[in-house]
Amino acid sequence: MCQLLGMNCNTPTDIVFSFTGFATRAGRTGEHVDGWGIAFFEGRGVRHFVDHQAALTSPIADLIRHYPIKSTNVVAHIRKATVGAVALENCHPFVRELWGRYWVFAHNGDLKDYRPALDGPYRPVGSTDSEQAFCWIMQSLAARFADCPPPARLAAELETLTAAIAAHGSFNYMLSDGTALYAYCSTRLHYLVRQHPFASARLADDEVSVDFSQVTTPDDRVAVIVTEPLTADERWHAFEPGELKVFVDGAPIR
Amino acid sequence: MCQLLGMNCNTPTDIVFSFTGFATRAGRTGEHVDGWGIAFFEGRGVRHFVDHQAALTSPIADLIRHYPIKSTNVVAHIRKATVGAVALENCHPFVRELWGRYWVFAHNGDLKDYRPALDGPYRPVGSTDSEQAFCWIMQSLAARFADCPPPARLAAELETLTAAIAAHGSFNYMLSDGTALYAYCSTRLHYLVRQHPFASARLADDEVSVDFSQVTTPDDRVAVIVTEPLTADERWHAFEPGELKVFVDGAPIR
């Protein structure tokens, strides 16, 4: 299985603290060593880093741990290969363009006997079930809407599409276009919202603490969504299985 | 204006030497400081780095200069903004998927009054003339071929498409799907092929030399394509204006 990490904020925020704990699970506190990836939205643009090495030892992950890239929407993934070889083209998140926006997708879980009819413009490059699911979601949304609908409308459509895919197995995923972050829990996903008054937090996986009151303004709001809680001293909320949440400006809108 | 750098090889090769000279033009020996980007194919996968900072000072460019990523097809770009703001979404190279392959595109030049009819599945995310041209090329190729044709056949189609675009201005570009590198010269482009017996070379823009005989095997072959020659002591070939060359396994096939 893999693990997912997402961040959605109302002001550009770096993910160094959370990514440091998350990447520790790629070899030290977890066995997710078969590649990793992260995508940061900056305005309409996206920075996309993927690597088939373990995030604990990858020089590119080291850059991400030490270079504070500020973003309002981030999706990251550490992989333990189940379907598809350990190869760059099988690393999540995947990126496609739809309606003149980049869409970023990462999945945790396994789909059995999943062979969607991909007769639209999106085809998988690698060999994962995840990228097939992403291409089918993009194809279906492109066929359904001529332009990007509001997040709540898109989420309603996603719920229909997700139900069809999740019938094939576990399908926790994150999807973002840089304005909203859609997170679906099939089996396991947690989130928290950090906002004023900010406090300190300590990573569960590493000897690292941060006092968020020192690095924020009172207006900042940050939602962090992750497979397993990243900190030991904050209150994380578990998603219900089957629940899709949409995060905008650092908070869930549904 | 911008500058382009491409590499096509018969064995995975790093681009540290060439990129070091190229990035020097982003502030020290050139004025291309409005962002940069580079894409490396590894098998079917692609590593894509873009940054709106200057390549001379960007921490991510520093990683590329020091971390030897091996690839058989690389496309890089340093930008001096003419059309489109200095922003991440306007940094080349751009990436799209077609026929289950990633396609990477970078452009140097200016197109006047260029408004192609983009009624297919590819839409620009940023505001450059370059991304419009790329989307139109992808749309046209998708409409023309159900699957990827051999490089020579694709090149013939590209020549037709390129002529329509180049009527609007200067349109030097590089395009790759990770198996071939297509390079078109509208005004200025150079290339060389390094092969056995390998010799030393010295950058024109920096005090850096390399003895390729120490880092190659006799079977290696590497084509480097660039706007302005990168080395002072090698024989570079100038493209003819209007010429499209296709590089496969480190050599031009036409």
From TrEMBL, chains A, B:
Keywords: Glutamine amidotransferase. It comes from the Bacteria. Gene3D superfamilies: Glutamine Phosphoribosylpyrophosphate, subunit 1, domain 1. Residues 2-254 form the Glutamine amidotransferase type-2 domain. Pfam families: GATase_4. This is Class II glutamine amidotransferase.
